[in-house]
Each structure stands twice: as structure tokens, then as C-alpha cells.
């Protein structure tokens, strides 16, 4: 790719770094969870802004006034673009009427109807606030419906923050929390079949993402026929099939990722893109599970707040009208094709895996080490392109051709810096 551009300015992120020092005094870890530097995903930490001052469209601005093209999209919720005018207008209109009140707003029913009419497998919809709310609930529904205890998970999984949805060795997680968990590898129907035979009549559900997208590793799409095999094994053995569509929902297919892969899940969990950043999650289910779901005591004080429902309805309707799913996938292909071309021109082997709208990047030159990749990402961030080094990326509807051109230029400059710093690495000819 022929690129002609002036060298990019390296950003000063000192204000965010100073605020982080203050945050450490008042907040555990300063910035907790996956947004913070404590997980070791921001190397070096000094390259990252850490705090934002505002956001608009596909951009975020830090406390120093630097603008970033954001390929993290708030870990997925920024679907149409930050502060989308149509979504925000619907939210504000509802806010004027009320939000968290004793009685439920009609926008809840409106959102449920919208989900049922959008998601192919859905006969009903139930709402929470976080993806983990819905994945945990899905497991409870499967247990209530089958009167069984054991749950099968795919190794490398992440399905939320409940202790029994996490991994042994994580702080605060005990063996008792995981006593009913069983594990299989990705793309291993034979392992699932063996567990069914080993624990006959004991497995309540299988929970999995539509394709393999853990952190720090290449993503893997399901091979042809995979989900059909898993669906049949569940059907033949009375096991509830749960799709964790929290991350991939409305990125792969507006009708649900299970529909995209040619099956129907029994339960599908959504969050992230569902309301363009307004805090809401949803589980959709088949009719046979409706009564079991209704019998479970599961709720939260803010789960039926009206504003997110209004935002969700506006998000889904605009996504359909603008063909956002298809358009974002198209942008993802164009962007990553350009990144690969620029990488090759600089002697780098850039691996792109996963779905185009939520792709994963990795420099393969130093694999299994990630030093070169982390350094390349940091150099991009310092010049206004916000990539993560450990997580899949996200495309939003506000991303423009000009944004992609700028991204390629920054990527090119970052490649050249990394190569100069590591002249003896394993570069392609």
C-alpha cells in the first residue's frame, strides 16, 4: 500500500496518568476490572490515556484533549457511534417521563416485543443490566427446567463475574463454586458426547459463545456442521443449549448468532450492542422454558429502568434501517485488509481472526511471545489509534473511510518503529 503522510504527533497523556495516581487513593486498583491497567493488558501503561473527557461517533478524547479512533468501542457497546442522535433523543424523551419508578414503563414491553420480533429463536425476552446477569440466569433456567445440576463450558470461556462462572485459581473463587462445572475444548463434539455418557441425565445445559473468542489468543470460527452436531447432542439428551451472544450479538447477525450458524439455541444472552451504551442486557428463550423462567426469583432494583429500554428500541430500529450489521462487517474487512497489506510491506505477519465486525489482531513474527505485538499496539495508541493488545476489536457505524486511512498511516509508522527497535526479529521477506 502506497502511503504518503507526515509523521504523527506522539500524544501527551500526563493528565490521565496524574488522575490515576489520585484514583489509586480512593478506588481499589485505581481503575478496576478489564478497563484498568492492573490486568497487564496495557504495556507500557505510560502509553495509555486511562481517562476520557468526552466521546462522539467513533472517537474518544482524553484529559489532554487528544482524539483517538476507538476500536475498543467501550468493549463492544458503542455499536452505532457514541452519542448517536436518534438513540439519545429517544432516551432523553423517556427520561423526561421517568426512568426508575415504582411502576414499569411501557418501554419495557416495547423492547421485549422488539427483541422477539428481531431474534429468530426468541419467544420471550427478560432484561437485566450486565451480560453476566443474563448468563448466570441462563444457567439457573437450565437447572430449573431440567432439574439437573451440571453445566458444560468450553475451556477458555468467560461468561461473567458470578463465582461459579469463573475459573479455579481466580482470587475469591473456591472449588465448591465450580463443583458442578464440566469442561470441553472448542470444536470438540466428541468430548461433549463423552461427558454426556459419563454423566447420564445429569447435565442441565451447555453454555458457549457462538465462536471461540477468548482474550490473548487467535479467535476461531466454528467449522461447518459444528453447531448442528452440538444441537443434536443437546436435543437427544434433554440438555438446554445456551448461546452467550453478549459480545457477538448484533455483530454477526441481527437475528442472532445461532441463526447465522443455522440452528436455534434454547436461550440466547445479549448485552453490549443492544442499546448503544445504555446499560441493559437481555435473555431470549424458547416457549418451553417460559414457565421455568417465570418461577425463578431473579431481579435487581434498576433492571426495569425505562431509559435503557427506549434507547434499546431506537438502537435496534436504526440498526435495521441502516443495515448496520452488514455495513460494519464490510468496514471490518476493508480495515483489516489494509492493515495486513501495510504489515506485509513492513515485513510483519499480521494475523486477523474472528468475525470481521469484531476481529482479533496478532503479529505472528514473534509468536508465542507477544512483545512485538504489544509494542506495535502501544505505538498506535500513542498516535491516536486505540487498539487493545489482548482482546478482539469492534467496528461501529460511525467509522469512516478517512478514519481507516488514518489508521493505516499510524499502523505503518508504528510498524517501522517496532522494526527499528527489533532489527533481528523474524520478519517476512
- Assembly type of the chains comes to single chain
Strand content: 5-15%
> Please, how many helices?
12
The radius of gyration over CA amounts to: 22 Å
- CATH class annotation of the largest domain: Alpha Beta
- Shape by Cα distribution: globular
Return the CATH topology of the largest domain: Aspartate Aminotransferase, domain 2
Mean pLDDT: 96
Biggest sheet strand order reads 4-10-9-8-7-5-6
The major pleated sheet works out as: 7 strands, mixed
Named at the architecture level, the CATH assignment of the largest domain is 3-Layer(aba) Sandwich
CATH superfamily of the largest domain: Type I PLP-dependent aspartate aminotransferase-like (Major domain)
Please give the number of β-strands: 13
**Structural class by SSE content:** alpha/beta
Outline of this structure?
By secondary structure, the protein is an alpha/beta fold.
Written description of the protein model:
The chain has 429 residues and is α/β, with parallel strands linked by helices. The protein folds into 2 domains: 14-82 and 324-421, Alpha-Beta Complex (Aspartate Aminotransferase, domain 1); 85-322, 3-Layer(aba) Sandwich (Aspartate Aminotransferase, domain 2), CATH 3.40.640.10. 36% of the residues lie in helices and 13% in strands. It has 12 helices and 13 strands. It has helices spanning 14-26, 85-97, 106-118, 131-146, 189-198, 226-236, 257-260, 290-294, 306-322, 324-345, 371-381, 401-421; strands at 52-56, 59-62, 67-70, 124-128, 150-154, 181-184, 203-208, 240-244, 267-270, 281-285, 350-353, 360-363, 385-386. The strands form 3 sheets. It has a 7-stranded mixed β-sheet, sandwiched between helices. A 4-stranded mixed β-sheet has the order 1-2-3-13. The two termini are 16 Å apart. The model has no long low-confidence stretch (mean pLDDT 96).
Amino acid at each position: 500500500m502506497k502511503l504518503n503522510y507526515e509523521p504523527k504527533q506522539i500524544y501527551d497523556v500526563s493528565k490521565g496518568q496524574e488522575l490515576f495516581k489520585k484514583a489509586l487513593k480512593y478506588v481499589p486498583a485505581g481503575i478496576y476490572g478489564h478497563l484498568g491497567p492492573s490486568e497487564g493488558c496495557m504495556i507500557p501503561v505510560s502509553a495509555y490515556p486511562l481517562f476520557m473527557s468526552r466521546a462522539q461517533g467513533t472517537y474518544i478524547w482524553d484529559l489532554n484533549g487528544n482524539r483517538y479512533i476507538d476500536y475498543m468501542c467501550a468493549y463492544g457497546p458503542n455499536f452505532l457511534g457514541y452519542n448517536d442522535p436518534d438513540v439519545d433523543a429517544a432516551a432523553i424523551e423517556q427520561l423526561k417521563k421517568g426512568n426508575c419508578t415504582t411502576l414499569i414503563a411501557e418501554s419495557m414491553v416495547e423492547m421485549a416485543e422488539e427483541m422477539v420480533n428481531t431474534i429468530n429463536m426468541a419467544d420471550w425476552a427478560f432484561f437485566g443490566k450486565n451480560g453476566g446477569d443474563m448468563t448466570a440466569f441462563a444457567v439457573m433456567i437450565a437447572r430449573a427446567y431440567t432439574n439437573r445440576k451440571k453445566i458444560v463450558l468450553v475451556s477458555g470461556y468467560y461468561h461473567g463475574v458470578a463465582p461459579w462462572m469463573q475459573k479455579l485459581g481466580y482470587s475469591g473463587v473456591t472449588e465448591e463454586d465450580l463443583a458442578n462445572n464440566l469442561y470441553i475444548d472448542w470444536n470438540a463434539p466428541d468430548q461433549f458426547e463423552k461427558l454426556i455418557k459419563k454423566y447420564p441425565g445429569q447435565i442441565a445445559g451447555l453454555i458457549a459463545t457462538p465462536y471461540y473468542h477468548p482474550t490473548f489468543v487467535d479467535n476461531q470460527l466454528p467449522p461447518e456442521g459444528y453447531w448442528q452436531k452440538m444441537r443434536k447432542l443437546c436435543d437427544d439428551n434433554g440438555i438446554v443449549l445456551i448461546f452467550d451472544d453478549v459480545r457477538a450479538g448484533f455483530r454477526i447477525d441481527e437475528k442472532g448468532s445461532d441463526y447465522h450458524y443455522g440452528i436455534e439455541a434454547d436461550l440466547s444472552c445479549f448485552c453490549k450492542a443492544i442499546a448503544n451504551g445504555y446499560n441493559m442486557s437481555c435473555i431470549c428463550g424458547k416457549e418451553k422454558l417460559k414457565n421455568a423462567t417465570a418461577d425463578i426469583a431473579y431481579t435487581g432494583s434498576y433492571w426495569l429502568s425505562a431509559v435503557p429500554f427506549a434507547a434499546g428500541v431506537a438502537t435496534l430500529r436504526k440498526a435495521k434501517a441502516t443495515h448496520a450489521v452488514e455495513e460494519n462487517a464490510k468496514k471490518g474487512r476493508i480495515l483489516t485488509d489494509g492493515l495486513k497489506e501495510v504489515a506485509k510491506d513492513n515485513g510483519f505477519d499480521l494475523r486477523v481472526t474472528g468475525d470481521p465486525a469484531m476481529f482479533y489482531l496478532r503479529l505472528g513474527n514473534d509468536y508465542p511471545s507477544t512483545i512485538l505485538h504489544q509494542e506495535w499496539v502501544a505505538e498506535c495508541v500513542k498516535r491516536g489509534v486505540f487498539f487493545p493488545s489482548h482482546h478482539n476489536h469492534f467496528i461501529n457505524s460511525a467509522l469512516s473511510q478517512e478514519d481507516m486511512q488514518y489508521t493505516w498511516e499510524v499502523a505503518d509508522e508504528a510498524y517501522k518503529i517496532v522494526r527499528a527497535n527489533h532489527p533481528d526479529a523474524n520478519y517476512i521477506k
